[in-house]
Specification:
alpha/beta; 7-stranded parallel beta sheet; about 20% strand
Length: about 240
């Protein structure tokens, strides 16, 4: 199992989840994607798990609960009157999916410590109960070092394994801070850079997305991406 958490909202978790799923599917693995709490999407509309399936291909998707308002899951649950998602409930669904799949990807909502329920349950609690590694999706530009370091520090303090950091959206024309961050992210976070997705990856036609996905992810995620080569390429271009 692999939990996918962002350093915040809108950092590219869903597209990264799709890239990991597509790479696993290309390796003939059976893949399931679990979204414990989907917010900001009305009933009948496609959610994040549906977007992962559209981009990655045939896989199993599951939501535990859906809330229409674009809020933190705990707040959205309270306002809607729909029961919140308890970490134990999400973990139980993940365990059930794991019985029939080679890889279960669990995509969070927002950052690692966004509250799922009134008792303060979070995605970190889901990961802990499963003994699952956590892949951190980070922004590319200014400000990402602090947010990423805070996230990986929480993981370490809670005894959780970090599977690495993936940059969720790399701009076509990176500024100085963004270029420097590629080398600085591993230093400040204490974990490896294991992927970089280009900006707009989610807008690619699905067939093109699936073909390119392994080139964005390192070998630890089943791909071909080399952080060392990426840094050297940036140095030559600057």
């Amino acid at each position: 199992m692999l939990v996918i958490a962002g350093t915040g909202t809108g950092v590219g978790k869903t597209v990264v989840t799709a890239a990991v799923a597509a790479t696993a599917l290309a390796g003939l693995h059976r893949v399931a994607v679990l979204k414990p709490a989907q917010t900001g999407v009305a009933a009948g509309e496609p959610g994040d798990a549906d977007e992962v399936r559209r981009l990655a291909g045939e896989l199993t998707t599951r939501e535990v609960r859906r809330y229409a308002e674009p809020l933190a899951p705990d707040t959205a649950a309270r306002r809607s009157g729909i029961p919140p998602v308890r970490p134990a409930e999400a973990a139980a669904v993940a365990v059930d999916l794991a019985r029939r799949h080679d890889l279960v990807l669990i995509e969070g909502a927002g950052g690692l410590l966004v509250r799922l329920d009134a008792d303060g349950g979070t995605l970190a609690d889901v990961a802990w109960s499963l003994g699952a590694s956590v892949l951190v999706v980070a922004e590319a530009g200014l400000g990402t070092l602090n947010a990423t370091a805070l996230t990986t520090e929480v993981l370490a303090r809670r005894g959780l394994t970090c599977a690495g950091v993936v940059v969720g959206s790399w701009p076509a024309d990176p500024d100085l801070a963004t270029r420097c961050n590629v080398e600085d992210l591993p230093a400040v976070s204490g974990v490896a850079l294991v992927g970089v997705l280009p900006a707009g990856a989610g807008a690619l036609p699905p067939r093109e997305f699936r073909r390119a996905a392994p080139t964005w992810l390192a070998a630890s995620l089943g791909g071909e991406f080399s952080p060392k080569d990426f840094v050297e390429q940036l140095a030559r271009a600057s």
